Structures are given as C-alpha cells and as structure tokens.
Amino acid sequence: MRRWIGTSWKMNKTIGQARAYARGLRAELSDRGEMLDRVQPFVIPPATALAAVTEEMGPLANMAGGIRIGAQNAHWEDSGAWTGELSIPQVKDAGATLIEIGHFERREHFGETVETTSWKVQAAVRHGLTPLLCIGESTQIREAGKTATFLLDQTRGALSALTVEQMSRVIIAYEPIWAIGAQGRPAKVGELREPFDVLAHEYGGRTEALLYGGSVTPGNASELLGIPGVNGLFVGRSAWTLSGYLELLEVAAAPENP
C-alpha cells in the first residue's frame, strides 16, 4: 500500500521560492520510481503559486504514480459575487486535483463550520477533486473524554451527503489542535490509538486514506506510520524545506514501513 505523505505550505513561499522547491522535488523524484511505488507525495502550495508549482512539476504533476498538487481552500459555489474567494473550478484550472477542507485555522479564524465543510466536500467531488478533510479536537475536549464523539460529529457532518463511490475518494486527516502549529506538542502514540481506532472502524476501507498530522518530523514519522489505521502523514513546517520533505519521503518508503 502506498503511503500518502504531503505538506501544506500555508501562507509561506513566494512564486520564486515555490518554483525552486518544486523544481528540486521533480529532479529528485524523476528517477526514483521505487520510492513512488511506495509513497504518494502531495504538495499544497498557496493559491498564488499553485499554477507555477504544477508547471514546474511537469509530467510528474497529478499523474498516476506522480505527485499530487492541492489547494488550501476553495469556495463551495462554482462562481458568483464572492470577493476574495476562489472557486473549485478555478483551483482545478490552476492544477489542483486535491482540496484541503476544514483545517482548524479555517474553522477558528474564518468561521468554517461542519455545514460549510459539507458544501465544500460535495463541490470537490462534483468537480472530480479529492477532498482532504481535516478534523481535530482541542485540549479541553480531549481532557473531557469527548474526542471520539467530536471527531465523528465533524466527519459525519462533512461526509453525510456522499455516495459510497464518492466516499472512496475522500482523505481524512486527523490533526489534534493541541499537537499542531508552532506551540503544539508531539502526540504520544498511546494518545492516537483511540482516535484512529474510531476513525478506522467507521471509515477504514471506505475512504482513500486516513492521515495523521501534528508536529510530525523525520524523527517520529516511522513510529506514527506504525499506528494501526494510519495510511500516511500530513506534515507542516518539517516539510517546508525540500530536504526535510525528502527525508520524510525516505522514511515512509523504507522497507520497515510496509
């Protein structure tokens, strides 16, 4: 089984910086077919660099056995008077085949709700894009023992309108709020077993993949990939340098991570 290993650059990198990263990644992976047999890389640049990254990736971009390119956000409507927004047809036109939906920062700072994540998921699958649904609980919810209920509420609410076939194209990324960002602390394996037991029971085999994200580094990636139910990693700052991302791909492709 191929491991999904991806990164969102968030609000980082100019077009020139994004091109340099993409050019280097393409050069490193172009003759690494054995790695791409074991790992599915994906990169989610800022919207300004989406077309440039797709162009630099060349024939590896979005091809079978290549590198998937994603967008960090898009509106659920195809067009209209939504100043400052981008539609899914627009990000698709720029090269995206994957769309990140429901990240904690979108929910916390921009008012994204379970309802709007559902609208965005439906729009993504309608246009043939892979929804990457982000879910995760706060420290308060975890300490109250409500993690499982909270995660299922977020996930069911976002995916309830999908058919079985559409569901099979969804990726779910579990990113506990207490473990992400500059102030996050790395999660212990024992803290992740219950969430992935719950998610795997309901969505394992029904979705494309279940990913973990939160303070992932090359040092803990192998251990995280060994958690039952985890099909890959969604990485932040550790993969913002090309060398860091390549190291994570090497870990995921290693024989001890079947």
From TrEMBL:
Pathway: Carbohydrate degradation; glycolysis; D-glyceraldehyde 3-phosphate from glycerone phosphate: step 1/1; Carbohydrate biosynthesis; gluconeogenesis. Keywords: Cytoplasm, Gluconeogenesis, Glycolysis, Isomerase. It holds the Pfam family TIM. It catalyses: D-glyceraldehyde 3-phosphate = dihydroxyacetone phosphate. It is found in: Cytoplasm. GO terms for molecular function: triose-phosphate isomerase activity. Its EC number is 5.3.1.1. The keyword Cytoplasm applies. The keyword Isomerase applies. Homodimer. Belongs to the triosephosphate isomerase family. This is Triosephosphate isomerase. It comes from Nesterenkonia lutea.
